[in-house]
Structures are given as structure tokens and as C-alpha cells.
Design brief:
Elements lengths: L33 H13 L3 H10 L12 H16 L1
Length: 88
């Protein structure tokens, strides 16, 4: 892509409108400790779009925060496992 090529428009996926985290403070999903991760996971556990959220974070390689009930470390583990499985 050269400097003159516009970036594609990013739109909010429809499933995000149903996410329970929309009613919470964004900072709650970007915690600095394990207690904060657990608090975010409790919200995610009840969320009707948890699977879509996790897949979005995996697809776009989102490095920070709790997405789909998984921390950054857990998402890295999932991606590593997928790569290993695909290589077989």
C-alpha cells in the first residue's frame, strides 16, 4: 500500500451492539492485575456474544485487554494452539 491508498473504513460489527461490556467502563476490560481480569471474565461469562468477541480479538490480533473472557496470555495460547493444529 502506498501513502496515497486510503485505509478501509472500519465499522462496528453488529454483534458489538449486544455486548454486555458496553454498559461497563472500558477500563474494566483493560485491567493491570489478575483481580481485574477475573472481574471482566464474570461479565464475559454472561455475555451473549462472548464467542464472537473472542474470535474478533484473535482475528485482529488484539494484544491488550480481556476479550471474549480471555486475557492477552490466553489468546496467545489459543493462537499458538491453532497454528500447531493447522501445521499437522
Amino acid at each position: 500500500m502506498d501513502d496515497h491508498t486510503p485505509l478501509p473504513d472500519h465499522h462496528t460489527p453488529p454483534w458489538m451492539q449486544q455486548a454486555l461490556c458496553r454498559a461497563a467502563a472500558a477500563g474494566d476490560f483493560f485491567p493491570s492485575d489478575g483481580v481485574g481480569v477475573d472481574r471482566a471474565r464474570r461479565v464475559c461469562a454472561e455475555c451473549p456474544v462472548k464467542a464472537e468477541c473472542l474470535e474478533y480479538a484473535l482475528t485482529y490480533r488484539i494484544d491488550h485487554g480481556v476479550w471474549g473472557g480471555c486475557s492477552e496470555r490466553e489468546r496467545r495460547r489459543i493462537l499458538r494452539q491453532r497454528r500447531l493444529t493447522a501445521a499437522r
